[in-house]
Structures are given as C-alpha cells and as structure tokens.
Amino acid sequence: MRARPASSRVDFGLFLIPEADNYHELTELVTYADTAGLDLVGIQDHPYQRRFFDTWTLLTALAVRTSRLRWFPDVANLPLRNPAVLAKAVASLDIITGGRVHLGLGAGAFHDAIVAMGGPRHEGRDAVLALGEAMAVIRAMWSDERSVRVLGRFHTLDGAHPGPAPSRDPGIWLGAKGPRMLALTGYAADGWLPSSGWAPPEFLTEANKRIDEAAATAGRDPSAVRRIYNVSGAITDEGVDRGFLEGPASRWVDELTALHHDQRVDGFVFWPMEGEPFDQIRRYSEQVVPAVRAAVTA
Question: In terms of Cα–Cα distance, which of 249, 244, 237 is closest to 284?
C-alpha cells in the first residue's frame, strides 16, 4: 500500500446525531468546533427515526451559524430524497455558505423503514444501479448546461433546467460497503465514507484495493478518491487502554497517523461512544488533532 506524501491534507471533523431534543447542545458543539480548528461536520440521515430532526434542515441551520466548517450529510438516504431536488439543495447551501458543502450519499439501509415512509425498496444490484443513476442526475443538475437529460431505470431527467450552480464542485462521497458499491466508488465517486463500526483497518485494506482497481479501470487516478473515516470510540485517561479507538490520546494519535499513512485515510470524523460528549470532543480537538497533524507533516 502506498504511503501518503507528507504534503497531503488531512481533515478532522465531528459526526453528529440529529436528536430533536438536543438542539442546544448541537449548536454549542459546532460553535466550539468552528473555533477549535476542526474542518468537517457530518450528520447522519435517518428520516424514519421519529426522534431525529430532518438532516438537511438541521445541517442548514447549523452551517449558517459557522464561518469555516465544511458540512455534509453522512450519508444522505437516497431512497427518500429525490436526487434532482437534493442536488439543488446542496448547490443552494454551498452558495449560501461560500463553498462549504459536500454531498455524502448512500443507497439506503433499513429497507422496511424506508418503505414505511413511501420510499422504494432497492436492494442488491438495483440499489447500486439506482445510486449510479442518481449521481449522474446530481452532476447534471450542477452543470452549466441549459437543459439536461439523464435516461435511467430508476432516476431520470427529461429536459430539466439546472441551476443555480454550486460555487464550486461539492463532490459526491459514497457510504459504500459491498463489492459493487466499492467498485462504483472507484469508478465514479469523489470520496468514500466508511465507518469504524463496520470497517476495521483490515477491511480498509481490501476495500481500498477494490476502489483503486475500479478507478484505474475507469482511467482515473485512485488517489483522487478521498477516504473520510467515521471513527467512533472513547478517548480515555492515560493508563486506560482497551484497544483500537478505545485508549488514551497518545494511542489515538498513533492509530490515526498510521491509518493516514498505511490506509491512505484523508480525514477522520469523530463521535464519542461513551463519556461526556463535550469533554471527549475537547480531547479530540486539543490533544489528538494537533498531534496527528504534526506527525503527518514531520
């Protein structure tokens, strides 16, 4: 596996849960993150969860309160979001925030819950095909063409008028796990969004190979596909070490630095699994992030 050059940019961010009874704490967290040197905020998208805000509404409300953080749904639930309208929402917020929005996109899980809200049940090959068509629709809606057409089985455009265009290309990052989804990521996406809960380091090794092979087959530079890793765990006190992503700040520094160099991870989006969230996020922002940045450039 190739090591990253020392000049590679590494982004650090937070993963937020859009709990409707937690808005005040969410605003405090992003206000802190905006001044603490973090780069990204991702918000999960599960519209069928009755205790959750709508992700895009919350993302917009929080993004306009900040001045430097970049924002993305982690990941948008495609079966419940029309891709042409989603493209317009992303472009609109990108303009409003001065180019601080990315699009994380997924094929959708929890199929029964999606169907219960009136969404389609796309599984297996159909899910991958629908996602690929949606990406074509979104990119067409971000173009400067006067009229666009995309002919697909699941998603189409028939003479739609794109606009407004985003202030810069937001990119599409896929939450991909299976072989077909990983191949689609390498073939057509701008980034990959795995999560440590289902993608341990050994999975990253094999998945990176699939992405790279698909990118090369498509004539793309594999390094153009950014890897943004959702990391959930606990930053413990010194002397308390329970293993991967469950140890003191010094262990986190070593692990994230190794993931960057060995697995070519370009960014880390953190959410604590235990402890007081604000304390954990301070440890991440003040003890882990600066040390990893220094190690990467050393």
Answer: 249
Inter-residue contact 67 to 35 (CB < 8 Å): no
Token reading at 159: 């003479």
Instruction: Report pLDDT digits (tens) over 181-202.
Output: 999 999 999 999 999 999 999 9
Nearest to 41 by CA among 24, 76, 16, 10: 16
For 217-275, the pLDDT digits (tens) are: 999 999 999 999 999 999 999 989 999 999 999 999 999 999 999 999 999 999 999 99
Q: Specify whether the CB–CB gap between 196 and 160 falls below 8 A.
A: no
Cis peptide before 75 (omega within 30 of 0): yes
Residues whose CB is less than 8 angstroms from the CB of residue 173 and which lie 6 or more positions away in sequence, other chains included: 72, 75, 102, 103, 104, 105, 189, 190, 191, 192, 193, 226, 228
Q: Which of 124, 66, 78, 120 is nearest to 103 (CA)?
A: 78
Residue with tokens 């924002």: 71
DSSP-derived secondary structure letter, 191: E
Tell me yes or no: is domain 11-297 CATH 3.30.70.141: no
Q: Where are the alpha helices (DSSP H) in the chain?
A: 23-35, 55-63, 83-96, 111-116, 124-141, 179-188, 201-217, 249-263, 277-283, 289-297
